[in-house]
Amino acid sequence: MNIEKVANLIIEKFPRVHFNKEPFYVLVSTVLSQRSKDENTEVAAKNLFEKFKNPAELANAKPEELHELIKPAGLYRQKAKRIIQIAKILQENYNGKVPDSFDELLKLPGVGRKTANIVLYVSFGIPSLAVDTHVHRISNRLGWVKTKNSEETEFKLMKLIPKNLWGPLNGSMVEFGKKICKPVKPDCKNCPIKKYCNWEGKNDSII
Questions:
Q1: Closest C-alpha to 46, from 77, 71, 81
Q2: Annotated catalytic residue within 79, 132, 194, 202
Q3: CATH code for residues 3-15+130-204
């Protein structure tokens, strides 16, 4: 299998456009997206940024002020606390700016490898491979890797896929995973890369 060719096909067929690339917005939105559906994340982010425009305003907020705003994204108490902590750290240590360093991003509460990589690619154009549940599941299902967790998948894929595809692949894999290659009952009949898939159950999953 030509993995680069298939990755390009996924990116071509399932493009994802990021309309707001402002670093703080992307960072907070990605924190909000944890264990949340995209549509709920969008509502929560919209609510939040209509009231609080930047790290300075959020750094002075109380968690209770965020609860109703971000409630659609779930885990709102935990996320409110983290977002305010992040804003305070950015104000105190980074002059209110989101750092463009992977290691510095990981120092922020609630920020893991996936979130850091999304911020680096979307906001700063730095080649970064964010691996979430979609990327991990689909990469294993296609037969690209045989891995047990997202971090292992990330390092394996970085060796298999050209650096220029790292950033776009995450968003496209998410769209592909939501529309076609679903966790349960994937729509193999309408999959544009079915012939490149090594998943043993694909022929039984036509719906």
A1: 71
A2: 132
A3: 1.10.1670.10
